[in-house]
Amino acid sequence: MQDTDSEAVILKIDDVSKVFDGARAVDRVDLDVNEGEFVTLLGPSGCGKSTLLRMIAGFEVPSSGRILMRGKDMSRDPAYQREIGMVFQNLALFPHMNVYDNVAFGLRARKRTDDLDRRVREMISMVGLEGFESRRTGQISGGQRQRVALARSLVTAPDVLLLDEPLSALDLKLRRQLQVELKRIQRETGITFIFVTHDQEEALSMSDRIAVMTAGKVDQYGSAVDIYHKPQTEFVARFVGETNFLSGSVCSVTSEQTELDLDGTDIRLSVATTSAARRQGERMSVSIRPEHVLLGARGEYSVPARVVSHSFSGATITYALDSAAGPLLAQVPFQPGRGHPLLPGETVSAGWPNDAITLIPA
Amino acid sequence: MPKFSRSVLLLAPSALLMGVFLIGLIGLITSSLSIDGQLDLGHYTAILNRPDYVEMLGRTLRIAALTTFFSVLLGFPTAYYVARYRGNRNFLLLLIIFPWLVSIVVRSYGWVVILGPRGLINGFASWVGLADRPMKLMYNDFGVILGLVHVLLPFMIIAILSVMLQIPRSMEEASMSLGGRPAHSFRTVVLPLALPGILTGITLVYLMATGAIVTPLLLGGLGDTMLGTEIFQEVMHFFDYPKAAALATVLLITALGVVLPIQIFERWLVRRLSDGAGQ
To answer: What does pTM read for this prediction?
Structure first.
């Protein structure tokens, strides 16, 4: 929505809703996807992301609104007329066909058989499955099945590829490996990817833009960096990464700066005014990421705090603190030989730099 | 060891059942093969030398084949519809097996009421003035096939449905997303995956149709009975057990000739499919 600059919008979701038995699964969603972009629909289960994807694929018809591909309304076109590929959550490989026939299916169905063999083999080699052509889909590993599904959906060179949590069944290591590979294939083919996941790490690491969805609506649509560092709603801040919420009341607003009195302290925060800002006297929250909380009297602001517990996770230690402004999580790098971790009960000064704060409507 | 002995215990009832069936079958075949305690093919040659029996066998197989054909024709779309029905599927299932609550005699007799010379259809036709003479809707092959399809259709539907329910909807969606029009998706994805169920249904319905007694008795003509009815009459009216046994064996062998290849093909298909389904 923000940056519809020179790039071509290939897919436009225009005020689309889907109602199932009176419940709004998707609620007035607007979304633009640019050509060649990797867009992720991120949200918890039941947020409507899969329903939105199924409407783009043509398996569901929107209750209202339009879906445009290259400017043409295709909301009511049957799935087989759309230039769209899909990788299913359960992969949906055809069990009665071998790898080659699975990959060739789309070309045969669309009767593009002139250089079928070359294109199928090219696709099989792109996903690194040479030599597996005549295997049945039950005789290959989970990661290989994933690649077959990808090759099968890409062989027709669709305008948009939809991926419905295709990695969710894999173990972490294989998952990471396939994430990298998905990115590579997306770059190589230049095909627009729309990826659905509930895994925020996956979304952050792969996407050009992320649409965070909850209760059928898109809460925020922006780059991974914006989603993480400038969350616009409490839901986005909480769902994407861990965060601290501190609340206060607005004491003055100008077009540039908003000043906020932090509850339980005499700190007056001065934050860049955003669209989220409220009038004087109203309640607001700020979000501070745990990794931005500094221990020891550092940062522009600091509050006294007491260590409640700590947990060690390799490169970092996360402390749960009880501060005057409320509970705080602080994630600090751990360097062996540089002192021992703070112990529960110890007091420490917790601070943060000014630019680490994001205003959130309370 | 305890696990082993438990499975042996569980085997006992089925072994008993199979044993009793097997003894019955052996008894049937031996009694058909002996005349006065001597091994003799006389019953068989007697049957094969009677043109009316040979014709009856042909008619039985033809009626069974047609019944099976129409059961697939009606049963497959029904099973497909039920499997893909988004509402209360159990209610539809109940409607399908509901006829099983009524005995075959009653169900077949129901057709007599509808198709008979003074039945519902003919009564209506003559009342409207469509026909001055009653149409011959029963006491012929048409009536028998109609009755048999009605009686056996639920078996076909259930057999196909049980396989169809295992096919995820995403199979068809995958085909559609790859540009497969409905007819293409049906031919290349749905039909091959549903084939084991169709073959099971064909086997069930064909076997039951060849052995049908009551429906041909009520709806068939006097002159052209089916083999099952004939065997029933040999036993119940003429007490000619060896002849009945020979007829039954002939029926059994001809039915197996059709069913065994189907079964072997189905086994092969299922093994191929489960190979492809993955873990």
So the answer is: 0.80
